[in-house]
């Protein structure tokens, strides 16, 4: 009879959170065992990779400067067991409404 110890295998994906701090976005990624790296892309900027600084690290925090306006941030987090989670979110920083009326496209109902 073979006994399997499930707690030895990490199957939990990392969690990804965003926090707007002044004109920056703070990315906070946590894992219950150990992180490997994250990649992020903000708007049209080049994709960046941030690796853990020490073995066994369970959190990666990265603060990135952002420009005023609306853009999309995409983060992919990978832990040491190669579990992957991805989060994409639109972010609007310090936009003041001008006289322009920016309307969203409406879907027609059938």
SSE blueprint:
Blueprint: E1 15-21, E2 24-30, E3 35-42, E4 48-51, E5 59-65, E6 69-79, E7 84-93
Antiparallel strand pairs: 1-2, 2-5, 3-4, 3-6, 6-7
Concise structural overview:
It contains no helices and 7 strands. It has strands at residues 15-21, 24-30, 35-42, 48-51, 59-65, 69-79, 84-93.
What's the number of helices?
0
Major β-sheet, in short? 4 strands, antiparallel
* Intertermini distance: 61 Å
**Approximate helicity band:** under 10%
**What fraction of the residues are assigned to beta strands by DSSP?**
over 45%
Shape descriptor: elongated
Structural class based on helices, strands and sheet pairing: mainly beta
Number of strands: 7
Average predicted confidence as pLDDT: 83
What are the secondary-structure elements, in order, as H or E? Answer: EEEEEEE
pLDDT < 50 stretches: 97-110
Side by side, the strands of the main sheet go 4-3-6-7
**What's the gyration radius in Å?**
19 Å
């Amino acid at each position: 009879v073979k006994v399997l110890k499930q707690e030895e295998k990490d199957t939990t994906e990392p969690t990804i959170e965003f926090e707007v701090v002044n004109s920056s976005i703070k990315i906070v990624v946590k894992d219950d065992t150990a992180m490997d790296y994250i990649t992020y892309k903000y708007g049209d900027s080049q994709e960046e990779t941030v690796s853990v600084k020490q073995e066994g690290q369970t959190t990666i925090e990265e603060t990135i400067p952002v420009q005023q306006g609306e853009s999309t941030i995409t983060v992919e987090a990978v832990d040491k067991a190669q579990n992957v989670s991805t989060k994409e979110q639109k972010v609007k920083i310090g936009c003041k409404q001008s006289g322009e009326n920016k309307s969203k496209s409406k879907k027609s109902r059938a």
